[in-house]
Design brief:
The chain is of the alpha+beta class. It contains eight helices and eleven strands. It folds into two domains: about 120 residues, 60s Ribosomal Protein L30, Chain: A; about 120 residues. Helix 1 crosses helix 4, helix 2 runs antiparallel to helix 3 and helix 6 packs parallel to helix 8. The protein is globular, with a radius of gyration of 19 Å. The two termini are about 25 Å apart.
Length: about 290
């Protein structure tokens, strides 16, 4: 069999709908663990409310949040996959069909940055990033709709031969500026090095990592631990109510580059929207998240 446009369209549509209704399992586990170790009644009640909302949305097949965000997809194409599809057009068609059929309806969040006109479609929408996976016989699609709260506070800065202390100070400054306006507890993704565009890609991809996963690079793992502790010590807490849980995880990746070093920080709010599935060359679909 060959992966066709219709396969991509159907899966991209399903992934978006799933992302709006289900908080990922690792996120629910992290929220429950945070609730159990919180030091204030208000923070515990807030986290418990989040878990209740997540479970009710999943059980009732409803949206967890009314801000459905804008369509953002990551497509990983296996070098041994058998496919004949116009991937970008198929994903766009999937989102268009979703807009027409989904219940409850989506709000108009796609915004023209020059006119502030809101719609369901626009230039370069959906936003799609591509990559290759060597020796794989599938196409993997990840959907992570980006909403206002977490999207607004992402940031990037360029440094020249920075020290590790300079990099970590900047990341913490971004967290301080965001405060509780990104609907914590959040996942922070950090990209370091490479080029302007590649660094921000790294940061966004790191928000998709499983919460609790250990970075294979010991130096980076130590950095993640320090930053997670430092951000939680700020005390913003769940939804800004105060407490010990502002971030569920800080995930870092880096790339070699030139003497100029970009550092990018991205966030996912407490819902941590993230769905993922693979279409194999034989036609079957494997849902991963």
């Amino acid at each position: 069999m060959t992966i066709k446009d219709a396969d991509i369209q159907k899966l991209s549509e399903d992934l978006y709908s799933w992302a709006l209704r289900k908080v990922p399992e690792d996120t629910k586990v992290a929220l429950a663990a945070a609730r159990d170790r919180e030091t204030t009644d208000t923070a515990r009640r807030t986290l418990n409310m989040m878990l209740t909302s997540a479970n009710r949305a999943e059980n009732d097949n409803q949206f967890v949040c009314s801000d459905s965000g804008v369509p953002v997809y990551f497509v990983k194409i296996g070098t041994k996959a058998d496919w004949n599809a116009n991937i970008k057009s198929a994903i766009r068609a999937g989102f268009d069909h979703l807009v027409e059929t989904i219940q409850p309806p989506l709000l108009k969040h796609v915004t023209n940055p020059l006119t502030n006109e809101r719609s369901y479609s626009g230039r370069h929408m959906p936003i799609i990033t591509y990559d290759l996976v060597e020796d794989a016989d599938y196409i993997e699609i990840i959907c992570s709709p980006k909403a206002l709260g977490s999207g607004r506070w992402a940031a990037m800065e360029l440094f020249t031969f920075p020290t590790l202390e300079t990099i970590e100070t900047y990341i913490l400054d971004v967290a301080i500026k965001a405060g509780a306006q990104h609907c914590p507890p959040v996942v922070m993704g950090v990209g370091i090095g490479g080029t302007f565009d590649y660094c921000t890609k790294l940061a966004k991809e790191q928000t998709l990592r499983e919460i609790g996963s250990i970075n294979p690079d010991p130096q980076v793992a130590a950095m993640e631990e320090r930053l997670c502790e430092a951000v939680n010590a700020l005390g913003y807490g769940p939804m800004g109510t105060g407490g010990a849980t502002t971030v569920l995880g800080v995930h870092v990746d880096y790339a070699a580059g030139h003497g100029f070093t970009p550092v990018a920080v991205a966030f996912n709010c407490w819902i941590n929207r993230r769905t993922r599935a693979r279409i194999y060359s034989d036609g079957h679909v494997e849902r991963l998240e």
